[in-house]
Design brief:
- This protein folds into two domains: 2-122, Response regulator (Rossmann fold); 127-221, Orthogonal Bundle (Arc Repressor Mutant, subunit A).
- With 225 residues, it is an alpha/beta fold.
- α3 (59-68) links the parallel β3 (47-51) and β4 (75-79).
- Strands 2-1-3-4-5 form a five-stranded parallel sheet, with helices on both faces. A four-stranded antiparallel sheet has the order 6-7-8-9, covered by helices on one side. Strands 10-11 form a two-stranded antiparallel ribbon.
- The chain is built from eight helices and eleven strands.
């Protein structure tokens, strides 16, 4: 899972981040409401955890803004405001769950797992998005910044796999098994060639590169330089 955490309390944020990392998950942290909303709009996440009381922009406003734009990412509000009325307010603006502080990490993690699993069952993914790069699985189309890109079938499959694992390092073995269906390394440069061609198409004519090589490890698709 790739989780977005919007939390201004550094001790709470560190506690939650460590918990998810220990579970082998990926987590991105924003300390202000405006930064969190920007990240939520910029990249796809499996779930979002939002504190209610945030500097610059409060949690309920973030939830409402995302829902008004049609974003269906599962959202859990994590707040010291835990009265019944507070929970109702959070659910009314579009949050999927509400957990009061102080909290047990295992309960938080389980709630997030349930939300993600429910979303996967109820809403099969038909579109993938990372920053301004969008992949439509039904129309078999790719766009970046509104510009259509022409990809070969293998390039499309490679990009789909990278986007489904956005923010995580993808190894050569993972690509061989999931994109080429090889369960052994044929000792060729087939991956390097296709990654190079894909990078030319999705990054060359744009200001911010998305496809990065992690030397000695593999590749990662994200907005970091």
């Amino acid at each position: 899972m790739h989780i977005l955490l919007i939390e201004d309390d550094q001790s709470v944020a560190a506690f939650v981040e460590k918990g998810f990392l220990d579970k082998g998950q990926v987590i991105t942290h924003a300390a202000t409401g405006t930064d969190g909303l920007g990240l939520a709009k910029d990249e796809a996440y499996d779930a979002i955890i939002i504190d209610r009381m945030l500097p610059a922009l409060d949690g309920l406003s973030i939830v409402k803004a995302l829902r008004d734009e049609g974003d269906t990412t599962p959202i859990l509000i994590l707040s010291a405001l835990g009265e019944v009325g507070d929970r109702i307010d959070g659910l009314k603006v579009g949050a999927d769950d509400y957990l009061a502080k102080p909290f047990d990490f295992e309960e938080l993690y389980t709630r997030i797992e349930v939300l993600v699993r429910r979303r996967d069952i109820d809403s099969p993914v038909t579109r993938l998005k990372v920053a301004d790069l969008e992949l439509d699985l039904l129309a078999h189309e790719v766009q970046r910044a509104g510009q259509k890109l022409s990809l070969q079938p293998r390039e499309f499959r490679l990009l789909e796999y990278l986007m489904r694992n956005a923010g995580q390092i993808v190894t050569r073995t993972m690509l061989l098994e999931n994109v080429w269906d090889y369960h052994f390394d044929p000792q060729t440069n087939v991956i390097d060639v296709h990654v190079s061609r894909l990078r030319q198409k999705i990054d060359k004519d744009f200001d911010r590169p998305l496809l990065h090589t992690v030397r000695g490890s593999g590749y990662v698709l994200n907005t970091s330089s």
